Amino acid sequence: QVQLVESGGGLVQAGGSLRLSCAASGRTISRYTMGWFRQAPGKEREFVAGIRRSAGNTYYVDSVKGRFTISRDNAKNTVYLQMNSLKPEDTAVYYCAGDLGGAGTYDYWGQGTQVTVSS
């Protein structure tokens, strides 16, 4: 059974940076689209960033464009989210997800990691 485990969250001041990691086990994820989502208390879960099998194909929600970068290291079976110029509104639980069925939907999810950005 595939597992996705996020790490790298924490507390950071506005303007700071964090790098989140999503380590996959049980299946090689190099063939699949992977993504990051986030959910703040009282808010809907939203898509943040996605990366296709070809690492050059990436997608971002408008609010993080120019600040966040999604990448993958297939040798480590890991996906990353580099977050720069963090803002308080970036505070949320961040989830790693994968289209591991190859059907165009995110069908596998990690447990989430908390990111808190202080003013």
Give a description of the structure.
By secondary structure, the protein is mostly beta strands. Helices cover 0% and strands 50% of the residues. The protein contains no helices and eleven strands. It has strands at residues 3-7, 10-13, 18-25, 34-39, 46-51, 58-60, 68-73, 78-83, 92-98, 108-109, 113-118. Strands 2, 4, 5, 6, 9, 10 and 11 form a seven-stranded mixed β-sheet that branches. Strands 1-3-8-7 form a four-stranded antiparallel β-sheet, with no helix packed on it. Strand 5 and strand 6 (58-60) form a beta hairpin. The model has no long low-confidence stretch (mean pLDDT 95).
List the helices and strands and how they pair.
Elements: E1 3-7, E2 10-13, E3 18-25, E4 34-39, E5 46-51, E6 58-60, E7 68-73, E8 78-83, E9 92-98, E10 108-109, E11 113-118
Parallel strand pairs: 2-11
Antiparallel strand pairs: 1-3, 3-8, 4-5, 4-9, 5-6, 7-8, 9-10, 9-11
